[in-house]
Structure formats: structure tokens, C-alpha cells
Inverse folding.
């Protein structure tokens, strides 16, 4: 029996780093400190697992070997004129780096899940920067926490206990010193724990932020109500913001994907900058998958752009709305795809999903997904943070090392190793190896 301490949880963007895992005979038998989602993954990841490469023949996926499977993926990518390589939020940063090399080699587009979730927030910080901080600073210093358009009690179960509502803090000794505010169109589980729940009208986030900026500067708000709130409520909330010692706004897809999208985030950034005239304030996107932030970070420091990078011109080109995966598929432009650690056929709009499924399709994933069932070739990969090590970026863009605690099934490689094999074969087919 071996006990591993300080294991990182590979579920959500919290990347909780205090997990204790007990292993017996290459099997995880006990998990401490993780939430229900993390515990379930660590104890059950191996169940109903795909361990053999599959290739489609006569309309059916049949077992094959790794050499034939990787050769088929390389052939699909080299023969395509405009391939799409998509996913990346559920694999290591090292794998993403190789994926970018592969996209450049085949002249395709590499995109990640940010294009359908926090992409508008990333676009906003292109123009405005991001007045942010780490989760450690929030834990030890923040006395006012705002969750805007997100519900971490459902999606990030340990976020409140580890960082915001009741963590052990160096400078805030009494948890009652902290105030929790939730701004949402629904009375969520998180909202029920808040000191103040602000129930706003659907799609009125931009208007509320604008009114708050006016109230902060003691300017008159001419309307009687904004976003469904009385002006008096807005002015009281503005005073709460102004008078805290250290405040932070965590925002989710309720802000990035509602009416206004990137303009909502630009306005929120401006609000935080205004607040820093009075006190200390920061803004943090509350990211979903455990390495979706890493997908953006690695793509940005490799290409200069965070997602939706097009190499078809021979250099990295970025134009969200044109080079994003859903838009490319909706217009019917791609003629092949490689999906890594994602299940777009289960989540993309029907028009985009239909086009993805009708062209040559390859999948690298530990499990058999809906997308894998429609693929021409499927390659199983090891679970990062369980069966192989690798780096990932927490939602506050802090890079952390994920540990290996058990061995993967025989013959199953990491995403990085699989992609390196495919990249080598692509270069051989192109005559540049």
C-alpha cells in the first residue's frame, strides 16, 4: 500500500492540490479531501475504459494496433486541405504544445473549449488587460467575494471552502469578516449561501455594471430601475464595493455567454479598475475543465493567440467568429478533424456536429465518447494526473504539476506521446522528417 499526498484533482479549474490517494496493487482504493466529483473520478476512472486502438472498417469500429491507428490519423491530417484539431482542456500542457506543432505542420486550425465558454472574456482582456490576482491572495486577503453568473457549489464544489467563504486564512481570522455576494438570474445553491443575492434580469448584466460605475462616482442614475433593481439597491451595493478592504469578482458563463458577451467582460474590467481608485479589487474567470486555462496559456505563448489559431496561411492567424471550431464547422469548411480529450458531437450545435461527423474524424481520449463512436479511428490515452504526470494551469493561471499515482493499462500512452508519434508520421508522409 502506498499513500500519495498533495495529489492534484483533474476535474475542474480549482485543481485542488491537497488530495490524498491510497493505492494498492496499482488501484486507487481510498481518496481523502476531494469533492464528490473528484472522488468519483479517482475511484472509478478505469471502469468501462477503452484500452485498445480502434479503426473503422465496413462501418464498424474494430480493434487494431497503435501503429496502424497513428498511421491512419497522420494520413487523415496530411490528406486534408483544412483540418480542425480541437479539444485540449482535459490533457497536459505538454500535449497541447505538441498539438500546436501538429496543427502548424498540417496547415490546420487548433482550437480549444474556450471558444464556446470563456472566449468572450479572453477577447475582452485583449483590449483592456486583466486586473487579477491568485486564489491564494483571495484566500488570505479578500473580505468581499462576488460570484457573477456562475454557480461554483455545483461546478466547483470546494471553491467556497478552499478560497472564499470559509478557508483558513492568514489575515482574516474570523470567517464572519467575509461577505459573499451572488449576482445571477437564478436563485442557485451558491446564492442560498450568500450574504446578499442580487437577482437581475436576463441579459441585463452590462446595464447593471454601467449603473454601478456611475454610482461609484456618485453620478446620478436617471432611471428608476436598472436590470430589475431599484436605484437605491444599486447605490447601496456600490457603497459595499467601495468600502471593502479587498474584493474579488469571479465571473462565469452567465456573463461571458449572455447578451453582450465580451462587452460584459470589458465593462467588468472597467468596473474593477474604477474600484481600485478606492480599494483593492480583482477579477478572476471561474474556469471549467482542469486545464482549459492551460489550453489558452500554452497556445498563447506558442502562437501569440489563446485559441482558434489558423495555420492555413503558413503563419498563425486568429479571428474569433471565423477561425473558431463551431463557425468553421457550421460553414462546412473543414474536411477532417482530430479531437483530443473532448466530445463535441455531444455538445456542438446540430449543424456543426453534422459536418464534423461526415468528414474523416480521429479521436484521442481515455473513454469512448459520442464523438468516438462516430470516428474513423480512436486511440485510447492515459489519464493525466492519475496514470501519467504533466502540468496544468489553475483557473488563476498558476501552473501546477500533476502527479502519476498508478500505471496505465499496458500499451496505453499519454496524449503527448501519442501526438509525438502522429507528428513524426505526418512529417514522414510530407517528406520533411
Amino acid at each position: 500500500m502506498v499513500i500519495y499526498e498533495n495529489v492534484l484533482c483533474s476535474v475542474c479549474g480549482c485543481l485542488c492540490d491537497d488530495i490524498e490517494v491510497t493505492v494498492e496493487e496499482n488501484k486507487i482504493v481510498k481518496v481523502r479531501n476531494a469533492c464528490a466529483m473528484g472522488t468519483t473520478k479517482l475511484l472509478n476512472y478505469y471502469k468501462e475504459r477503452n484500452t485498445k486502438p480502434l479503426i473503422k472498417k465496413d462501418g464498424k469500429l474494430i480493434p487494431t494496433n497503435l501503429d496502424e491507428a497513428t498511421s491512419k490519423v497522420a494520413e487523415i491530417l496530411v490528406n486534408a486541405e483544412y483540418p480542425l484539431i480541437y479539444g485540449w482542456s482535459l490533457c497536459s500542457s505538454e500535449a497541447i504544445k505538441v498539438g500546436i506543432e501538429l496543427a502548424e505542420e498540417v496547415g490546420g486550425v487548433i482550437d480549444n473549449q474556450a471558444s464556446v465558454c470563456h472566449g468572450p472574456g479572453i477577447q475582452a482582456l485583449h483590449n483592456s488587460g486583466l486586473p487579477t490576482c491568485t486564489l491564494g491572495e483571495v484566500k488570505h486577503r479578500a473580505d468581499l467575494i462576488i460570484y457573477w453568473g456562475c454557480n461554483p457549489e455545483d461546478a466547483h464544489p470546494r471553491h467556497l471552502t478552499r478560497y472564499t467563504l470559509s478557508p483558513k486564512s492568514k489575515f482574516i481570522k474570523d470567517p464572519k469578516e467575509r461577505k459573499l455576494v451572488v449576482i445571477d438570474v437564478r436563485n442557485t445553491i451558491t446564492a442560498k449561501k450568500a450574504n446578499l443575492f442580487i437577482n437581475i434580469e436576463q441579459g441585463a448584466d452590462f446595464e447593471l455594471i454601467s449603473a454601478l460605475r456611475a454610482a461609484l462616482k456618485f453620478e446620478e442614475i436617471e432611471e428608476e430601475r436598472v436590470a430589475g433593481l431599484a436605484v437605491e439597491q444599486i447605490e447601496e451595493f456600490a457603497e459595499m464595493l467601495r468600502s471593502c478592504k479587498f474584493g474579488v469578482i469571479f465571473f462565469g458563463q452567465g456573463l461571458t455567454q449572455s447578451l453582450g458577451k465580451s462587452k460584459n467582460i470589458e465593462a467588468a474590467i472597467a468596473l474593477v479598475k474604477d474600484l481600485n481608485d478606492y480599494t483593492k479589487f480583482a477579477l478572476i474567470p471561474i474556469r471549467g475543465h482542469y486545464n482549459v486555462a492551460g489550453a489558452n496559456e500554452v497556445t498563447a505563448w506558442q502562437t501569440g493567440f489563446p485559441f482558434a489559431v489558423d495555420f492555413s496561411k503558413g503563419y498563425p492567424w486568429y479571428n474569433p467568429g471565423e477561425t473558431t471550431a463551431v463557425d468553421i464547422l457550421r460553414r462546412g469548411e473543414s474536411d477532417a478533424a482530430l479531437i483530443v480529450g473532448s466530445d463535441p458531437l455531444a455538445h456542438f450545435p446540430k449543424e456543426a456536429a453534422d459536418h464534423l461527423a461526415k468528414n474523416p474524424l480521429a479521436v484521442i481520449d481515455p473513454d469512448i465518447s459520442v464523438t468516438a463512436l462516430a470516428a474513423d479511428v480512436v486511440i485510447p490515452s492515459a489519464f493525466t494526473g492519475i496514470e501519467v504526470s504533466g502540468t496544468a494551469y489553475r483557473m488563476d493561471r498558476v501552473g501546477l504539476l500533476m502527479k502519476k499515482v498508478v500505471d496505465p493499462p499496458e500499451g496505453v500512452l499519454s496524449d503527448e506521446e501519442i501526438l509525438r508519434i502522429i507528428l513524426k508520421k505526418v512529417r514522414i508522409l510530407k517528406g520533411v522528417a
User: Anything to note?
Assistant: Residues 92 and 145 are 30 Å apart (CA to CA). The first strand starts at residue 2 and ends at 7. The first helix runs from residue 36 to 44.
